[in-house]
Amino acid sequence: MTTDAAMTAPQSVLNSVETDTANDLLGLGALIQVCASLPNNFIAFEYTTGDPDWWYDIVEGLPQTIVRSGLVDIIERPGMGVDLVPEKAKRYLAEDDRDFFD
Questions:
Q1: Which range is least confidently modeled, 14-28, 36-50, 58-72?
Q2: Can you tell which superkingdom this protein's organism belongs to (predicted)?
């Protein structure tokens, strides 16, 4: 830990989370949970959507409307708050990946 890091208390730093790896709805669920752990210090993150649209078919736990008035509700479920549903996801796998969930 550097001296600068040791002297920076979380309550005195505004955070903007870089979200290049949160590029799907599972990442969005995880990102919501991480940002919820930064109360009063978090200012913004990139909002990812399901692209292609079938992401919404294979993920459970997201509210119907994710962003309201510029805010995202914390998902009140265990873990990331969202679950991948393998039975639904299987139909979208490429031929070479058909046994991914087996």
A1: 14-28
A2: Bacteria
